């Protein structure tokens, strides 16, 4: 019965799709491929259930077989800023977080090797790459890759240090390299990118250092483990001193234009920055302020900041999480660009923020955010995954959405530009692959613990859903079906969580 439900979703997605780009698995072969390889969720919430299926369907569109082996793309059409095979390193972590829950996950080890061997634009964007790669390889039972390639992991970390480490112990960055262009904090009065200290790269470097320290210890390389642990602690001390204003983690920048390639220019000035230097123009809360919680960089006692996710003057917009403070005077400032991080809602940022919420619930003691809040956030995210077109509601994901109107705004900007220039509109962000959803549901709502040696499930959905089933779930080389049945009457397998290994 469940499989027929999933098949119905896939057939619906195929029917409503205009397939302009075909990679490894086209729509004609999607049903067979996904039935064999994709995780499947069945639950009382049909919006989340359908969106979960939709994200498995969109993900396989981005699997691309190349002369360098299997890779995963962010955009389906070719974009000018991409690296070889249309790959973009900014989305790597989301590709791995989602891809680890597919049965073909062993094949994605090639994608990791492509990245660590620097065949793509490995250092163009900031990401917590090592953190995600190590988690992926551990969960999928491919730890031997780490052991055999530890030097590549160390080289990746050291190259970021060479280019971005400052004397204060933190790392400079610009919003462009976060793939978060035209933010409030990271632009001057002329909307030029400026160097600064941001929660992004510093959180990522902390996460990578902690992950490296743990694997070095497992490999009995204790001196190396201590080295990376010390790196992490240096970041933590400086980060909280410079970027916490007593209320929120914020980015702070100098007011001088950054020119690409000026790795050392203004570094002394940036190193002296702290939130005390913020002005009225750029003193905005931004969603990136939650990233330190996602990686346990934020120390205890700062959890109250999460109340802003429910505040309609800060991040709680009608369609999702606004990327910048709604009440700030530069919210949604006007500039001639179709990717804006001045308040628009992004699946990318939404995924990061829900990751932080999951970490908060798992690792911090607090009373500000509940399991029901997590469910509400994921439900709202699921409701974003539609396009209203010609009287139809179609499953859809794109780059960014208007915070108060259910409209994919990058797409709308491009439609209007095509009309004004009398040219044909062509989709760019359709089926955009720079966020997670499958992983958020599996780890968040269903409560799969990725840090356990055996599959361990503690649902956060108790009291909200009476039941769910996770089917075709890979974990450490095993394949499982997970049932949650509150009173034992739905599946007739017993009460609570039942795990069956195939």
What's the gist of this structure?
The protein is an alpha+beta fold. It has helices at residues 2-16, 30-37, 46-61, 92-99, 109-116, 129-139, 143-148, 150-164, 199-218, 222-243, 267-271, 291-294, 347-363, 371-384, 409-420, 438-445, and strands spanning 40-42, 63-66, 69-72, 172-173, 194-197, 252-257, 386-389, 392-395, 467-475, 478-485, 496-501.
Counted up, domains total 1
Which runs of at least 5 residues are low in confidence (pLDDT < 50)?
Answer: none
Provide a count of the helices.
Answer: 16
Assign the CATH class.
Mainly Alpha
The average pLDDT value, as a whole number, equals 97
Q: Element order, helices and strands?
A: HHEHEEHHHHHEEHHEHHHHEEHHEEE
Looking at the structure, the CATH topology is Glycosyltransferase
Which strand-content bin applies to the residues? 5-15%
- CATH hierarchy: architecture: Alpha/alpha barrel
Largest sheet: 4 strands, antiparallel
Radius of gyration: 22 Å
Indicate the percent of residues in helices. 25-40%
Spatial gap, N to C terminus = 18 Å
How many strand units?
Answer: 11
Structural class: alpha+beta
Shape: globular
- Please state how the strands of the largest beta sheet are arranged side by side: 1-9-10-11
